[in-house]
Structure formats: structure tokens, C-alpha cells
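Hello,

Our lab assistant flagged a job as stuck in the queue for most of the afternoon. It eventually completed. Since we weren't sure the result was trustworthy after the delay, we are filing this so someone can double-check. Below is the sequence as submitted and the structure that was eventually returned. Let us know if re-running is recommended.
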Amino acid sequence: MPNLYQNLIFTSNFIFATSLVTIPIFALENQPETLPADISQLTSVSQLSDIQPTDWAFLALQSLIERYGCIAGYSNGTFRGDVSRQAASLRAMSRYAFAASLSTCLAKIQELISTTKDSLITKEDLGVIQKLQSEFSAELATIRNRVDAVKNQTAELAANQFATTKKLEAEAIMTVASVFGENIADNSDNNLTFAQRVRLNFVTSFTGKDELNLRLESGNIPEFDENITGTGMTRLGFDEDTGNNVGLDEVYYAFPIGDRIKTTLAIAELELNDIAEPINPLASSGNGAVSRFGRYNPIVRGMDGTGLGLNYQLNQNTNLGFAYMTNDAVLPTAKNGLFNGNFAALGHLNYQPIENLGIAFTYIHAYYAGGGESGINLTGSTGSLTARSPFGNVSTTANSFGLETSWRINPKFIVSGWVGYTKAESPVTNDDADILNYAVSLAFPDLGSEGNLAGLVIGMPPKVISSSLVADRDTSLHIEGFYRLRVTENISITPGVFLITNPEHNTNNKSLFVGTIRTTLKF
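-- returned structure --
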């Protein structure tokens, strides 16, 4: 007997593709040449339109069910045919309904044989199974075809389903901050401030690969800019002052085209760095550098608004980014609109020659119409006022070039840096200016404990190094240090300080210190 069951387990044609059991002839090679009388002398059920409770097939299947429990759902362990009306008496079954029950039972028996070393299935039962399969081969084949059709339909529905997945991502920043030193502006008392910023991102996916993001934001963290300190070099990297009014800060839809292209369509507040993603590990406003300048290259801060971005994964090591955006598309007036107002066009190459080294090249062509309330801002409020608008509030064209690199020397030490150069020209005054900025940063991930991060940044904020009008005569340095302590998976506390020497690239101005303790909560 054990040899018989071993043959069954290792027989590849033992079951149909839909888990229906098929008993091979050689599995019965050790049996008598004739089946037992109660089987071999039965009338063929192919002559019957329905299966009666007194038919051999019904009784045979009922016996298998009671012995092996291959059909669940009958409280007393018996097989009663059609019980749709909860009748206690036995009823006739159609051949197809009977075959469906037979199919279920055969699949269960096959499972028992394949998972049990010493099968309890007898030779007689194997004979009964083969006889049932032979008599109901047509009906079993029909069931198999229908099951295959259902599987195909299910797969098609899964591949083309339209089921949205929504989630809420929230970030709250609370900070204590102040500026220390003799401010350039006369209206600042260096008061200690306690403020907050809250962001709620409502993220929806329709296919599992796309993302619709709507961000609500409010805050009262002041901008330590020229209105407070006399220079934009002292701005925090997470400032946001809406008077605690809630506003729609970001709306975009990102979706793939094929396997290599990611498309981002933004209605509001798309930033160039969303397409030309910084490789600096200190780039996050909530968890990275505490200063605005220390996060990433200022040349990609020049403009945000409505736009279209594409990221093309050329190969495993190379990503190309392209973007076009404008911040005046909703104003159908002079020097506004999608193509005749402020705009920026970006080309970006991110190359990773080896696993721990990244290099990024960025080119941006931007046009500022001038004359508006927002004025000209070539540096994203990070450098001197001269670098921000070298020709005043008049039409300005800028071509910017950036080089960025990041090298993970080991898991706990990363060296990064960037340099940015902008050639600015005014088609109105025919003036030109050259603007330069650079920085080097050191990052120490997991310093002291997993999730912690220490960072150092040394650099020069944007400076007009030459101009047909006015150039910055001296050099300011930005020196920053911070330590992010992860309290829990969702909470971190980051004390940090940065020093600005010769603010506004002017040695007549005394150094300014900005100190802060940033607490970030994410959930």
C-alpha cells in the first residue's frame, strides 16, 4: 500500500490545472483486474438527466464525503443534495451541480494525499474516484473551463480597477528661535520667538502608482529677512508666516508613463527642487538643516507655481529631469499668463556612477517680467539684496548652472557640496551681472543613536561677484551646526545655530547669530 500512495504523490498528471483530481491508471496496477462488484456492475449515469439520491454516483460521493470530510458545510457530516429549501429529505441534483460537488471533493482528497505521508485512502476508494471521474468527465471539463474564465476575468478586473487609496500625512513644527547680534535693520529687538508651522497632506492614489497631493498649511514662524535683520541670509529653513490662516499650499498630480517616465502636473506651488531633487542629505525643512541657505543650492529656489515636470530614468544610474513653470498663470493681464509672464525652464541630470556617490548637473533659464509687487528674486531670498535683484524691479533674464555632489564615505559619514552660478541680464537696461554661491556640508547619520543626525554647513550665500551696475564688495560666510535627536519614530528635537559673517557681503556689518530649537512631529 505505501508504494501505491507514493506513486500518487509523485504523479504529475494526478490533478487537473484547476485542482481537480485525475487518478492515473498505473496507480491501480496492484489492484485486481476487475473492480469490486458494487462498482463494476453499476448502471452508467450518463443516461440520467438528474442524479437521484439512490444512484450509485450519489451514494459513492456521499461515502467519500463522510470518510474524508472533503465538503464542509453539513452539520451532520452527510451529503443531502439540494438543500436550498432546508428540506430534511434527500433531493435530486442536476449533473452539473453534482459534478461541482465532486470537483470540490476530489480537490480535497488530492490535498490529503499530498500532505499526508501515510494516506488512509483505500484501493476501493481510488477505484470509485476513477469511475466518478470517467462518468462525469464532460461536466468536470465544463467546470474547469468556467473556473479559468472566472480567473481571467478576475485578473482583468484587478489590472484595470479604479480603486482609490487615500491617506493623511501630517507634520507639525514648533520652534523657539532668535537672532543675536547687531542687526542691520533698525526695527529689531532680537526678541525670542515661539512659533509653529503645520502641514496636512491629503494623498490619493487611483492606480497604486500615481499620486494626487493636496497640502494645507498654516503657521506663524517669522521670516528673519531684511524686514527684521536687514538681510535674507538669516532666514530659517522652515519659516512660514500666514498669520495662522490655513491656505492651500501645494496641489499636484504625479503619474507614470511607461516604466521610466514620471510626470508631475502642478496647479500650485510646484518647486524646481521637486523635479531636480537635491542629493544633499540635509535638504529637509523638518529634519535637515535649520537655515534656508543650508538646505540646497539656491539657484533652484528662484521660482515656484504652476507647471509640468518630467523625470526620465535613462538607466539604473542616470535620471533626467525637465520642468516648465510659471507663478503668474492665473492672471490674464499684461506680463502674466502661462507663456508671457514669469517662467522658468529646467534641465537636470542626476548621475550615480557608484552606489555611494551622486553627482547632479542643473541648468535653469528664467525670465522675470518685473514691475509687480513680488519684484525680482533670483536667489530665493538666501543671498544679498543685490544678488536677489541686481538691476532693480525691471525685466530680468537669468541663466543658472549648478553642480552638486554627495559622497557617502561610510554609513555614518557623508560629504556633500554644491556650487551655483547665475548669469543675469536685463533686456530693458542692457545691464548684466554674475552671481555665485557655494557650500560644503558634513552629515553624520545615526550619531549617538539610530535616527539621529548631526550636520555642519559652511558656504557663501549668493553674491554678485561682477556687475555693470553694483557688485557685492566683500564676502559673507554661512557657518551652521545642528544636531537632530530622534525621541521617537515620529518626534525629533533639533537644536541648531548658524553664523553669518559680514552680512550682505559687507565688512561694515557685524556678524549675526541665529539660534533655534526645532521640534518636529510627523504622523
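-- support follow-up --
The delay was a queue issue, not a problem with the job. The result is valid. The chain has two domains: 2-158, 162-522. The CA atoms of residues 69 and 141 lie 24 Å apart.
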